[in-house]
Design goal:
- The protein is globular, with a radius of gyration of 13 Å.
- Strands 2-1-3-4 form a four-stranded antiparallel sheet, covered by helices on one side.
- Helix content is about 10%, strand content about 35%.
- By secondary structure, it is mainly beta.
- It has a single domain, classed as P-loop containing nucleotide triphosphate hydrolases (Rossmann fold, 3-Layer(aba) Sandwich).
- The protein contains one helix and four strands.
């Protein structure tokens, strides 16, 4: 499948001081796919969502929506991007 992902997250990190919540998370979601984040309490699921949605700034990593690269601070809402 060579289709460009609707969402691609590459090597995402989020630290809160010395506490490393996300370390090297990478995800691709293509059109028509369903994806879920699962894990125990404290695994970083909500932090991942908050970084991808723009609520938190990532420590490092890249987020691509559709074909456009964006700064997390520029993501105002999912509706703007057609989701």
């Amino acid at each position: 499948m060579n289709e460009t992902p609707l969402l691609e997250v590459k090597d995402l990190y989020k630290n809160f001081g010395k506490f490393h919540v996300l370390r090297g998370v990478s995800v691709k979601v293509r059109k028509g796919e369903l994806a879920a984040l699962i894990g125990p309490n404290g695994a970083g699921k909500t932090t991942f969502y908050n970084v991808v949605s723009g609520r938190y700034k990532p420590t490092r990593g890249q987020i691509f929506l559709k074909v456009r690269t964006c700064q997390v601070s520029q993501v105002l809402s999912w509706l703007e991007w057609g989701f």
